[in-house]
């Protein structure tokens, strides 16, 4: 009996860290969801201050006089530049160099989960003016980064407290923050789990998935209350069992080959950030191109709606010509914004690019062969396959497209097509959209994921 009691007690003690980490995963997911939601609302409020409207940026741009549509992105870029200049001057006034800015993927892979909060606050403030003034960049990048930084900061603050023994490791805390942030940005909890697992952690482990799922669920509950439910791009595609469905396979392989090309394109103008007023140049480009089509403003959600057959901006046509025009204009605008160093993400612009190219392929097939090919279906496959090829995260890409459209019938096919795109893209180039994640964890001095702290503390 004494031996049995000792074994039961040992098993109970061993389970305690797992339960504690599960509780912390829920708390960190809720906190990250709250942080990302409040930041999103802050973007909206600042946009109202700059434009007098709080709706989607393309809708705002469509209702503005042309001189304001040109001037507001330039004004936002000037404010964003001023914040970064103030950061450098503040650091020099204190007699030190500005602390380095650490991305969340880099934090987990290289910095053992440590994200300095102050540099992130400065960059988040800069991003707020860029996003609020219509920069052709994704707001989700700042939302996810801010959520991850808050969870990292909280974990560090509690390290010396009474609950220190129950805390998850910094790597787990940041990954939970990312899962909650992605869930908040896209109303996509399952995709949030696999984003954190495939891109941030670089591996899929059962216990890791369980913690991330708890964090994503908590983030989803909080963001749903503050921002509303999804899906963000509700689409019901036509699935007709004809020969055109087989053409989705070469379409996916085409996106697998396009993924490395797209990455090089989006980073091709990075030399522009050496200019003194690089962000202002980005504002001029965005403002000027928006005179041709207001859907240049923002992260590309209105353009993606057009590619999927919806008119988010009333009065603007949808169809092959409109999608091609917005695709060209936005590729130029986003490439310039990224090259000039505008703070933000490129995930949603990549979704738009894939959706637009896929929809154009569907329009072309329907025109050439006089078939009933649905451009919306081809657009969904395009945005999912390009994300899979660019990020090297096929599971995340399939779940992301499914949750964004709300059409779960597509999941089995997207899993197959995204895997094909990912396999080809990985053969062509080892580089992924998130550069740190491109490197094998055991190479170039990076710690192995098995030492990132997913195991419970003894």
Would you kindly provide a written description of the structure presented here, covering whatever features stand out?
The protein has helices spanning 2-51, 57-62, 66-93, 104-109, 117-132, 140-157, 170-186, 189-201, 206-227, 248-266, 278-290, 301-307, 320-340, 347-369, 375-391, 394-405, 411-428. With 458 residues, it is mostly helical. The protein folds into two domains: 14-227, Clc chloride channel (Orthogonal Bundle); 243-435, Clc chloride channel (Orthogonal Bundle), CATH 1.10.3080.10.
For the residues shown, what is the average pLDDT? 87
CATH topology of the largest domain: Clc chloride channel
Per DSSP E runs of 2 or more residues, the count of β-strands stands at 0
Largest sheet: none
> What structural class do you assign from the helix and strand content?
mainly alpha
| Unreliable stretches | 1-14, 439-458
- Total helical elements: 17
Architecture of the largest domain, according to CATH?
Answer: Orthogonal Bundle
Written as H for each helix and E for each strand, in order along the chain, the element string is: HHHHHHHHHHHHHHHHH
Q: Beta-strand percentage?
A: under 5%
The named CATH superfamily of the largest domain = Clc chloride channel
What is the approximate shape?
Answer: globular
Give the topology.
Layout: H1 2-51, H2 57-62, H3 66-93, H4 104-109, H5 117-132, H6 140-157, H7 170-186, H8 189-201, H9 206-227, H10 248-266, H11 278-290, H12 301-307, H13 320-340, H14 347-369, H15 375-391, H16 394-405, H17 411-428
Helix pairs in contact: 1-5, 1-6, 1-7, 1-9, 3-5, 3-11, 5-6, 6-7, 7-8, 7-9, 8-9, 8-16, 10-15, 10-17, 11-13, 12-14, 13-14, 14-15, 15-16, 15-17, 16-17
